[in-house]
Amino acid sequence: MTEPLHSPVRSAKVKPWHFQRTAIVYVRQSTPQQVIDHQESTARQYGLVDRAVALGWPRAQVVVIDDDLGKSGQTVEGRLGFQRLLADVALDRIGIVFGLEMSRLARSCKDWHHLLELCGRFRTLLADADGIYDPTDYNDRLLLGLTGIMSEAELHVIKQRMHLGKLNKARRGELIGPAPIGYLKLSKSQGKSDLALDPDEQVQAVVRLIFDQFDQQGTLHGLLRSLVHHQIRLPVRPHGGPNQGQLQWRRPCRETLQNLLHHPIYAGAYRYGHRPSDARRKQPGRPGTGRQICAPEECLVLIRDRFPAYISWERFQANQQRLQANRTQHEACGAPREGAALLKGLLHCGRCGRRMQVHYARRGSRYTYVCSRAVADYAEPLCQSLTGMGLDELAARNILAAVEPAALEASMAAVADVERERAELHQHWRLRLERAQYDVERASRQYQACEPENRLVARELERRWEETLEQKRKLDDDFQRWRQTAPARLSADEQALIRNLAADMPTLWRAETTTIQDRVRIARLLLDKVVVTVDQASEHVAVRFHWVGGATQDQTLARPVKCYTQMAEYPKLAATLRALHKERLDARQMADRLNAEGFRPPKRATRFTAAMVRRLLERLELPGRPRLGSRTGLKSDEWRPGELARHLGIPRDTITKWRSKGWLHSTRDADGYWILWADAAETARLRELHTLPRTWANKSRFQKLIKPKRRPKR
């Protein structure tokens, strides 16, 4: 049985070796507010020092640990005093631990039983206001275990009671935190605690301007740049500090704008529970971790039309969808950027279904759509790729055909947008100038009301007056500069010109004033996705346009290929060329006939030239006039580029590329024509180089094959 701590007789559980060690008095209050308001409880805990002295410990051997004042006992994290207590017990320095209640030591069974295990192993006693406990005694150990369970259950009951109380108030929409930008929290003296629009007209105008600019820019960064460009500052009323509640104008930042766009209160909705805590994501020593952000529909409480709104709920949801689509992730298209690709974010692979990426050339505007996720994720071969310019031209033609009936309405809507933007910015500047004029007049009245003899005050008021005048002059200059650069009102002639341009949508689409971001936004408004399937055996590409609304459109595109043999019309082209050769036409005449009949070269060129025809005749081994650079004067194992290409069975352009990279021996003759050297071993190496797959496993072999062997001396 436990013995009362208040007994005048010394307890039998206290042994002589206990007095040789230190007595610890552990002091803790759960919150800083309790430390301030419940001082009697704190004094009672400090009074346990006298209890330790009454039991026989010298006052010099009684140590008070009060490092955990204002900290909760539900976890050991962040409680340096409790951690110090555990360390001293484990070092066999503690004889007894005093606490007003055992719940002061720990509210968690895990931490409580850890302390009991250490105290039992090192024969350390525990004492509270009711008695002394020996963890090595069965009855005391059982009682201490039940006490720990009750302490943890009590904490759970307290937390649950507080949570349900807050939830009940939140379900009524009355649990309101600090007011966000553009709102003011009404005091309880004015009725129930509620939020209202900020009475300052300039504050309301800036908030509405932020949402309008986001609709025009389409991205968070574009909104930020627009506000900085127009020198628009955000109205902030601090929630604490010496300037609490006073209106301040601060420069815009990304985090503030992001929170503003994501907050449903601007659509008049009340939410609660949008940042729940996930214990699996908590990090030790960081209490704020583990929180998740929930969409308004997933919150514990969502009440529509609870507060006065700046925007409609439909507009708020459209903003959330746009912000989600701007994220750079697999399921989102991403924000429109400066790259020349029109279908970035919309193009999908018809083989594996993954989204295709855009690869830009280092120089120039050429780019390629590539399905390379399997390469990055599973080290598989490249799925498919194709040049992007032809596909984008096809998509642009279809988009222009779709928007042509609504071109005039869209152009006039653009005119209205320009007019509305100018009016909003002009209203913003008017309010800023009005506020600056008020500050000047207020400083003037304060200076005029000061007694002339009181120079100590008059000098300070005069300085403030001069500062407000200087700020007013600077603001006037900024306003004049804005008027010169602001969008001007369109005259009747300019509006008529816009109507004429609307009738010619291709010209407007390709105009220099139309940016690639504008074209991408239009494409995403009309297209849900585009699926392409490349036929590796020919130049044909199957393209399926998925329009918004569910309609689909199938088309076929001809892509540039490496050689003539990959073209589906190559047999017909060869037959036509043989027929033209029998007519004894020269190369230029043959090229004109091929172009007239609709034949196209395999690569990016759109028309046949005489040089192309000559190389094609040479490939088809059709006799013709002797060409410059024949085998006349060549030695053993020397080749002309075309001759070596035919001998190896590879395209001549490949030989040209290898020669420019130094992968084979080459010289020039007296007439300036290339002479290549390749013996039997070299031709075998070149054949293997041409057929070797360009994979990671063949990387070392590829490095060996691109190095030609030493040419023997002549």
Q: What would you note in describing this structure?
A:
This protein has 714 residues and is α+β, with helices and mostly antiparallel strands. The chain has 5 domains: 16-168, Resolvase, N-terminal catalytic domain (Rossmann fold, 3-Layer(aba) Sandwich), CATH 3.40.50; 195-282 and 291-335, Hect, E3 ligase catalytic domain fold, CATH 3.90.1750; 346-559, no CATH class; 560-625, no CATH class; 635-714, Multidrug-efflux Transporter Regulator, Chain: A, Domain 2. The protein is 46% helix and 12% strand. The chain has a 5-stranded mixed β-sheet, with helices on both faces. A 4-stranded mixed β-sheet has the order 12-16-17-18. A hairpin with a 4-residue loop joins strand 17 and strand 18. Helix 6 (109-121) runs antiparallel to helix 7. The chain is extended and about 125 Å long.
Kindly summarize this structure in a few lines:
By secondary structure, the chain is α+β, with helices and mostly antiparallel strands.
Reconstruct the topology from this structure.
Elements lengths: L15 H4 L2 E5 L5 H6 L1 H8 L1 H8 L6 E4 L14 H11 L3 E5 L10 H13 L3 E3 L4 E2 L4 H34 L11 E4 L7 E4 L3 H17 L2 H10 L4 E3 L11 E3 L3 H9 L7 E3 L28 E3 L9 H13 L21 E3 L7 E4 L6 E5 L1 H6 L5 E4 H16 L3 H43 L5 H31 L6 H12 L1 H5 L6 H11 E8 L5 E8 L4 E7 L11 H13 L4 H10 L13 H10 L18 E2 L1 H8 L3 H10 L3 E4 L5 E4 L2 H12 L7 H7 L9
Parallel strand pairs: 1-2, 1-3, 3-4, 12-16
Antiparallel strand pairs: 4-5, 6-7, 8-9, 10-11, 13-14, 14-15, 16-17, 17-18, 19-21, 20-21
